[in-house]
Structures are given as C-alpha cells and as structure tokens.
Design a protein that fits this description.
With about 270 residues, the protein is mainly beta. Helix content is about 10%, strand content about 50%.
Length: about 270
Amino acid sequence: MRKTILLGAAALLGAATHSLAQTSGNELTDSPFVRNIRPDRPGVTITTNMLYPGQVQVDAGIQQLPASEAFGRHRAMSTATLRVGFFNHIELRATQGYLHPLARLTTGEASGRPTSPAGLAPLTVGAKFLTSTVQNARSQVVVLTELTLPNGDASFLNKAYEPSARLLVSQLLGQRYGLEGNFGFRQRGFRAADTKVGQYTASLALNGPLGGNFGFFTEAYAIGRFSWQKGINTGVSWRPVPGFRVDVTAGHQLNNHGLLLGTGLSLRLPK
C-alpha cells in the first residue's frame, strides 16, 4: 500500500507540474468542483482548495483516534480549522484540537496507571501558498507550511515547536471528480538533527458526487519513517448549499483493530 500511495502521488504531481505552464486563463469558476465547498477534512489529505481574499471557512469535526502509546485506546479528538483567504494567493489558517478525556476509572483501575493527556491540544498555525499560475485550474499545486506551538493543556508532555510542510497537488477529472495527493514532512524542533527523526506523510484521495447533493470521499495514506502507520478513510457528505457541508466517515488503520468513526461540518462565508 505504501508503494501504491507514493507512486500515485508521484504520478499526480508529475501531471500537475507538467500543466502549470498551460493554466493561464483557465480558471474554472463555474465547475462544481470549484464552486462547491472543499473542506480540509476529514482524513489525512489536505485539499489544494484556496479561499479568495475576504472569504472565511470553518472546518470542524470529531474523530475517533487509533490506539497509541501517547493517547491510549478509545480516544476521540474534536478539531476546528479556521481558514481565511488573503491576498496574493495566500490562505491563512489555524487549527485547534480538543482531546476528550478517558472515561472515569475506578480507584482500583486507576492505580499505577499513568495520567493520560486531555483537554486543549497544542495550536497549529500555518498558510497555503499557490504555486500554480491560476487559482482553481484543472491541475493545481499548493505548498502548505505549518507550525505547531508548545502550548495547550499541561497534561500534554514533551511539547516543542513542530514545523511541517506539505506539497499538495490535485487533478480535476471531468467536471466533478477530483484526485488529490499530499506529500509532506514534520519534525520536532528546528535543529538539523531533528530532521533525522521526523515523519513523512503521503496520501492519495478521490472525491466526487453520488447524486443529488450527496458526495463521497475515499483515501489511502501512510505516515511514518522507520515504521509506518498505513490506513484508509472513506465517507459520504451532504451539501444542501454550495457553502455548507456535513459529512460522516469511517476509517481503518492497518496495524490497529476496528473502525474509526467521525463526523463533522464545514461552512464558508461568503459562499
């Protein structure tokens, strides 16, 4: 699966990069793929969608997390991303998460058990930069840079500045289907030595209509370096108007058991 994701992302990047010189004057303002809201959730994949100056969008939802040493099992994270369209093909963004606490344990169950983090997670701020010549072309290339701050609830230990960058590419298929790929890197700290333990992210996603105001989303992803977390996510969405969407999702991480369920909504103003 990891090779498939990486090869697919590479092919998508090649096609999008090849078409950059041909995008001038081809902005697809009337395409449903452009006109309808495109959230940066659910799942791992971030879209190439860029808000126009003055537009504001909120992407919010709650998602079950896979079991991990850091957070334990049966955890859920609520996340909200505020996106603001800026000038010169720049989009500013801030993401705040809230890790829901574990169910209350009895005294016997809690003895000897380490305290698990809960509450407001560290804030992540960032920006998207359009590298294509035209916004909302059939092929799009965007760079996303983000920085996670060492703040949040005191129960989150070993906090540090965490810079990251992603290359986002997309290809419109027909008028309503979109293929999106991400390739990125994240590390803790700014030292050169920190790059040796950073993590890579690769994902490939397909989205499109199901009929009426309903749509679908599906993706495959791999995250890691020395060991990889590989998984899939899929879901359906309902969009009663172009600037508002509600979705439900289900995912599975290959080295974990069970489904990871989630739901959320996105709102864009003005539409």
